[in-house]
Design brief:
By secondary structure, the chain is α+β, with helices and mostly antiparallel strands. It is 33% helix and 27% strand. InterPro entries: Chalcone_isomerase, Chalcone_isomerase_3-sand.
């Protein structure tokens, strides 16, 4: 029997693992120091909308250090609705409408996806740089504007959030 060329083995291995590559992408695995700080559930009129978990280095949140927010959805929500709700919450916290509303909506739509029950969106905030977003473990894109990225995460983490109980749970203050 004739020996196979040396390159066949690595090619075969690549072929066998290629179909599973996307299933192994884990955004939190790229940040091994991130540990859970806390988690909580957002409800609307008694309906569970999602469960959120905050991750930070060594499990200690500091706004100027990288952190991630993982949201596990319990209902169908369109990318459009996620973008509009995010913009609305940012404007509520800031106390005024953004001048570039359409551009912000377009950025959010580019980094969000339609979600169904069980879907997960992970946002990784890199203060001073921006944020990266993942859905169903797939990389969706990033926001390069550090101020907009911080404003997005402030929806949950600002003292002016519309959901102070959820904020306390995320920060581990409800224990």
């Amino acid at each position: 029997m004739k020996a196979l060329p040396k390159f066949v083995g690595p090619l075969l291995l690549l072929y066998l693992t290629w179909g599973d590559v996307s299933a192994r992408i884990s955004p939190l695995a790229d940040y091994p120091s991130l540990r859970s700080v806390g988690s909580g559930v957002l409800t609307w009129w008694g309906i569970r909308v999602y469960k959120a978990t905050l991750y930070a280095p060594q499990g200690e949140y500091h706004p100027n250090m990288p952190h991630a927010l993982e949201i596990v959805y319990r209902m169908d929500i369109s990318r459009e609705r996620l973008a509009k709700t995010s913009l609305k919450q940012i404007e509520k916290i800031r106390g005024h409408a953004l001048a570039d509303r359409d551009a912000v909506l377009d950025q959010f739509k580019a980094v969000f996806c339609d979600v169904t029950p069980g879907d997960v969106i992970v946002g990784v905030h890199l203060p001073g740089e921006g944020a990266r977003f993942y859905c169903r473990k797939d990389y969706l894109g990033r926001i390069d504007d550090p101020e907009l990225a911080a404003a997005f995460f402030n929806i949950w983490l600002s003292p002016a959030t519309a959901k102070p109980r959820l904020r306390a749970a995320l920060l581990g203050e409800d224990q």
